[in-house]
UniProtKB/TrEMBL annotation:
SUPFAM superfamilies: P-loop containing nucleoside triphosphate hydrolases. The keyword ATP-binding applies. It comes from the Bacteria. Keywords: ATP-binding, Nucleotide-binding. Belongs to the MoxR family. It comes from Phaeovibrio sulfidiphilus. GO terms for molecular function: ATP binding; ATP hydrolysis activity. This is MoxR family ATPase.
Length: 334
């Protein structure tokens, strides 16, 4: 994405922006009625959906990752489906398959049975428990919003988003995601334990006779309109410069930082710049602003970069944290 293509030829008017800001405020309120103590996680997922991207939620089991996906599907009025990834899951279990049918006249023909990927919000639960072959079945769907089956290209519904949950890679029975698939996720969102007050609220609302259910606020069509508005938002030269400086400084081949050259084996590609340029616009709307700031870049940089960089073997052996390297890059913005 070049600086000139980042500008909108038809920026939205203030009434459009104000109307969307009011809708987003109601969406956050509706999600907050069901999900407690994960404000930053909710914000990052909303940024992902408003940007038209996919999110990877990383955290231990039982931290409401699946509940959040179902809640967002209801709040945004999306047709959502869930796939539980297991070691024996096959690509056809996600994409669908052809079956041979025999008609009443004795003729035979193949009929395609759509898999769960044909939806608007796909929850790929514990995605790193499936084999790399099955994980890669989502690659084309995530990037091109269509799938190829039996030589035919079939479009997916619009909008189409993947919210994938992942257990920490150190857990038994997990496989690391391929770098090409990781790059398809707009953000990697780390999910931590809730604080005591939030956990108390969880106990009060989920262990009683009546569980709180999410309520619809927007429609799929309204979400698509919001996504187009995000792309039409203006973004200043200084923000574009900050994004490019941040991303390019994370590449060992182009950086001037010795710690990056010594500690990073591969850095973020152009998709990181594109992801930041979209995500900062969406975050500005979430904060009730009509244009992004440098603070938006700094806040979103870890979620954009942490799955698009890798430390060298020696850096990992020395206990170096990738977040420490990213914090150093963010320091270049000030």
């Amino acid at each position: 994405m070049t600086p000139t293509s980042s500008y909108s030829s038809q920026p939205p008017d203030l009434q459009e922006v104000d109307r969307l800001i009011a809708q987003i405020k109601e969406v956050r309120h509706a999600v907050g009625e069901v999900i407690f103590g994960q404000d930053q996680v909710v914000e990052d997922v909303l940024v992902t959906l408003l940007s038209g991207g996919h999110a990877l939620l990383v955290g231990l089991p039982g931290l409401a990752k699946t509940r959040l996906a179902h809640t967002l599907g209801t709040v945004f009025g999306l047709d959502n489906k869930r796939v539980q990834f297991t070691p024996d899951l096959m690509p056809s279990d996600i994409l669908g398959s052809e079956v041979l049918e025999e008609g009443s006249d004795g003729t035979r023909r193949f009929r395609f049975l759509e898999g769960p990927v044909f939806c608007q919000l796909l929850l790929a639960d514990e995605i790193n428990r499936a084999s790399p072959r099955t994980q890669s079945a989502l690659l084309q769907a995530m990037q091109e919003h269509n799938v190829s089956v039996a030589g035919q290209s079939l479009p997916l519904p619009s909008p189409f988003h993947v919210l994938a949950t992942q257990n920490p890679i150190e857990q038994e029975g997990t496989y690391p995601l391929p770098e090409a698939q990781l790059d398809r996720f707009l953000l990697q969102i780390n999910v931590d334990y809730p604080d005591e007050a939030a956990e108390r609220a969880i106990l009060a609302t989920t262990t009683g006779a009546h569980d709180v259910s999410p309520r619809p606020v927007m429609t799929a069509r309204e979400l698509m309109v919001a996504q187009q508005l995000v792309r039409r938002m203006p973004i200043g030269d200084s923000i574009i410069d900050a994004i490019l400086r941040l991303v390019r400084s994370g590449r060992p081949q182009t950086t001037s930082l010795p710690e990056v050259r010594d500690l990073v084996s591969w850095g973020p590609g152009p998709r990181a710049s594109q992801a930041l340029a979209l995500a900062v616009r969406a975050r500005a709307l979430l904060e009730g602003r009509s244009a992004p700031t440098h603070q938006d870049v700094a806040v979103l940089a870890p979620a954009v970069l942490r799955h698009r960089m890798a430390l060298t073997f020696s850096a990992r052996a020395d206990g170096v944290s990738l977040d420490t390297v990213i914090d150093r890059l963010i320091g270049l913005l000030s």
